[in-house]
Each structure stands twice: as structure tokens, then as C-alpha cells.
Amino acid sequence: MHPETEGNPGVLYLVATPIGNLEDMTIRAITILKTVTTIAAEDTRHTQKLLRHFQIPTPQISYHQHNQASRIPVILEKLHQGEAIALVSDAGMPTISDPGYALVQACIAAAIPVVPIPGACAAICALSPSGLPTDRFIFEGFLPPKGQARLQRLSVLQGEERTIILYESPHRLCQTLSDLKMTLGSERSIVIARELTKIHEQFWRGSMEAAIHHYQSTAPRGEFTLVIAGKPLPKPQWSDKDLLFNLQQLLDQGLSHSEASRQLACQTHLPRRALYQMALTLKK
Q1: Burial of residue 83 (number of CB atoms within 10 Å: 0-12, 13-18, 19+)
Q2: 128 phi and psi, to 5 degrees?
Q3: Most exposed: 24, 56, 232, 248, by fewest CB within 10 Å?
Q4: Domain 123-228 in CATH: superfamily?
Q5: Which CATH class is domain 3-120?
Q6: What is the pTM of this model?
Q7: How far apart are CA 47 and CA 62, in angstroms?
Q8: What is the phi/psi pair of residue 103, to 5°?
Q9: Strand order in the sheet with 163-168
């Protein structure tokens, strides 16, 4: 068996768990959880349901935001003694918007190998079918709940040209949409993914203004991932000199005045008739 498909001594494994549908659990993740010595779980009661479903008998210890300072030395000691440990969060990939980041940092500082076991991630799951640009994006996780920290983060997002991904809870969704409207504008496109991979999975698409109206009349339920279009890039300004130069190049390639003006209109989104009149002033 390949060494990365089962728990090896002294290794911390970051094991992705389903974000809703249990069938999204990978075979490799199940094997790792079965063969490690211990599973460090964000909520042991929640993870126990997953372990029971896949008949995984491995014992658990808790590791979460409120005990990470005291738990990290314990986990490091176990790893130094040759135990294999899997870190899991309640859903998705560990360290993404959860306290696993601090444990990974401590392992790297202690020269302990850290191996990712990939799987479901709500951010990517929402982005891929959103219809918004996927070639460049940023993940912002949860915004600060209030105060100056929230205002500063929103201010930074105002000039962001990449697609933006946020997580949000149902009780704060409407306030966040309102704040985003004030910061990014009412016409900014947004896709709101709800209950990803679950029975009531839903994608809502529209403007920020329309999203606010929708959730004012429809009570938010479930966990939300917001995918927001980046700041529109300014349209290039074409001078008459630039237009004439490009038209002349097209004419030199053998295009007719009509074909040249039509092609340049597609590139510049300027009126074809006006470009045709300019083209008539040039010689083929």
C-alpha cells in the first residue's frame, strides 16, 4: 500500500470531512481515520456520528478554539512519541476558518510532517458553479462581526477586482448583505449558496439590491457561502488616433472598410457606424 494512504507514525494528517452529504467522504480519508492512532476533532460528538457511519473505531480527543493553547503541546508530544494523528473539523478542510492553523504552525516549527487529505470545501464548492470568474479569487472567510475591524475589512474589499468568497451564518446574513451594498454598490453581482451538498442545496443569483429584497421576505436558513463579483475593471479609453491606427492595420490585412469597422466595434464596444465613417477616411 502506498505510504500516503494509511496513517504513518509521527505524522499529522489534515483530513477533509463532508460539508453535508456523507457520500462526499473519500476512500483515502476513511482509511487514514481508521489507521491513525488518534483523531483530533473540533467537536467530538459531531465527529462521532461520522465515525459511526463509516465504522471507524479510532479514539478521539478534542481540539478547538477554546482549548488549543493547552491541547497543542499534548498533540505535539504524541506525535514526537510516534503516534499518527488526524485533525478534522466539523465540516470541510481543517485550518480553513478553524483553529487548525495554529496546530499546523506548531508542527512545522517542530519539524513534524503535515499531510493534507483533500476533500470537500464549501468555498470551492460554491465558486465552481457560481458563473462568476474563477481564474482569480480571494477567500475572506467570516467578516468580523462588528466594529472598526468589520469596517476596515469591508473598506479593503471595496477595491478588490477578484471574485470574493465569504462565509456567513443565517442570523447575520441580512446585515452583511446591507453592509456589502453600502460598500460595493447595489448593482454588484452576487451568488448566495445555501446548504451546499445537502437536500435543500440552493443557489441564488442576482444583484446585491435584489438579494436584500429576497432575504427580507425569505427567512435565511442554513449555512451560507457568498460569491461576489469583483470590482468591474474600467473600460479602456480609445483615442481617435488609436482607432484610426487599428482600422488601418485591419485594412492593411485585406479587410473591407465594413469588415474592419465591424471587427473593431466588437473589440471596443463602440458604435460600428461611427467606426465605419472613420474607416472611410483611410485607404486600403
Answers
A1: middle
A2: -60, -40
A3: 232
A4: Tetrapyrrole methylase, C-terminal domain (3.30.950.10)
A5: alpha beta
A6: 0.80
A7: 10
A8: -65, -40
A9: 137-142, 163-168, 224-228, 189-194, 202-207
